[in-house]
Amino acid sequence: TRNVVIYGNVVADQQAYSRPRSSVYRSSGNNQHSNKPTTPYSQKRIYVIEKGGKICFSAYPLLQCLGSSSPQGYVEKQVEFVCLQPSTVTQHWQELINEGVNPDFSQKKPFQTFTIQVPKSCQP
Question: Is there a contact between 103 and 57 (Cβ–Cβ < 8 Å)?
């Protein structure tokens, strides 16, 4: 058998949130990004989407509702993503994200920008 070691550029949530993130979350119509605090019903997480057969990871964590909580409205955001061919590495990153870890994609290039809807806030 063969052991496969996957090295990732992973940082703890505390480190991810302490970074300056200027011009990361560009809302339609203005240049401000959302620094809304998380609540017991929400958390900032890396978004994962599929585009053109590739797995795309948001460069920075965005607000997501947890458990059975519901979004209280949405806002459209222009968000930078890193898109990669599906592989054991992208599968590993998806598993980490599902466990609540936010891998650091901010240094991976090139970025592709997509418009997505992000919750304004979350309620039970």
Answer: yes
**What is the reported pLDDT for 5?**
43
- What is d(CA 74, CA 22) in angstroms, rounded to the nearest whole number? 21
Buried b (16+ CB within 10 A) or exposed e, 18-43: eeebeebbbeeeeeebeeeebeebbb
Please state the domain extents for the chain: 22-123
Nearest by Cα to 60 from 7, 95, 111? 111
| Secondary structure (3-state) at 124 | coil
Three-state DSSP state, 96: helix
pTM, 2 dp: 0.67
Model pLDDT, residue 1:
53
DSSP conformation class of 36 = P
